[in-house]
Amino acid sequence: MKLKSSFVCQQCGYKSPSFLGKCPNCGTWNSLVETVEAEKTSPWAKNKRERKAKSVVLKLSNVRTAEFKRIATGITEADQVFGGGGLVPGSVALLSGDPGIGKSTLALQILSHIGGLYVSGEESQEQVSLRATRLKIPTNKILILNETNIEAIIESVKSESLGIKLLVVDSIQTMWSEELTGAPGSVGQVRECTLKLLDVAKSKNLSIILIGHVTKEGTIAGPMILEHIVDTVLYLEGERFQSLRILRSSKNRFGAVDEVPILRSCF
Ligand SMILES: [Zn+2]
Fold first, then answer.
1. 39, 104, 175, 198: least CB-packed within 10 angstroms?
2. Residue 230 C-alpha to ligand 1 middle, in angstroms?
């Protein structure tokens, strides 16, 4: 199915085929975000039965909650912040913080324990390998992919032979979808790529950690929208040249947000 994109005002919903600095409807500046638009002639009839099957009314007392078996990260403090016990399968966490603070290192440490795929959009496979070696992070359980095209990444992840439980995307700002025309890092791209990854997380029961950089203004580039989409938002903070780091969560669908452990790992 051919998809096209349009630019939608986040304030009033006004739609434009091209980017506009100011919304002509409500007058807000920089409020238009590129959004994927499904073709109007969607094969509704074909999906009818499928959709019917999906909506089932149940007695609330008969609903069995899926006992999610958390996956321990190998780092006690990280498990604590994820909500006690570690990562939740089928969930997406955003790990953010200043550039150079150690987000990639923390993600690699978690990957070395659980095993999984590290998608590097910023560093080459050689650079990642060198860093892991320098920090004495075991790499035998880590798969690596150098890719920024989200459709290609999802295709790799969906291949059954991979059989991974954890996917790390470093960073979400480098990813782009071929369904949008905007540059990687633009609000539309960041949102669309995150939505696609969320979909994969749910359908494959996969844990995903997205790495996101904080901009000079102190917000995650591509910003509040992203925080609304993901299940968990974690911030890694500390002084760049000291070894202590604070990991805190500002949002957690699967736990409390008041845990503030101090990490003493190898940063
Ligand atoms: Zn508007």
1. 39
2. 25
Question: What is the 38 CA–ligand 1 centroid distance (Å)?
Answer: 21
Q: In the numeric block, which tokens belong to residue 45? A: 């009839």
Q: Measured in angstroms, how far is the CA atom of residue 21 from the centroid of ligand 1? A: 11
- Tell me, in angstroms, the distance from the centre of ligand 1 to residue 42's CA: 27
Size of the chain in residues: 267
DSSP state of 160: G
If you average pLDDT over every residue of the chain, what do you get?
85
35 CA to centre of ligand 1 in angstroms: 14
Q: Between helices 103-114 and 125-134, what is the axis angle to 10°? A: 80
What Å distances lie between residue 244 and 52, 211, 248, CA to CA? 53, 19, 13
**Which helix H or strand E contains 191, and what residues bound it?**
helix 187-204
**29 CA distance to ligand 1 centroid (A)?**
8
Which residue do the tokens 């570690």 mark? 86
pLDDT tens digits, one per residue of 232-245: 999 898 877 777 88
Using CA atoms, how far apart are residues 105 and 146, in angstroms rounded to an integer? Answer: 17
Q: Are 230 and 222 in contact, with CB atoms under 8 Å apart?
A: no
Q: Which pTM was predicted?
A: 0.81
Q: Please tell me the predicted confidence (pLDDT) of residue 228.
A: 85
Ligand 1 midpoint to CA 195 (Å): 23
Q: Where are the beta strands (DSSP E) in 134-223?
A: 142-146, 166-170, 207-213
- What are the residues whose beta carbons fall under 8 Å from the beta carbon of 84, sequence distance 6 or more? 70, 255
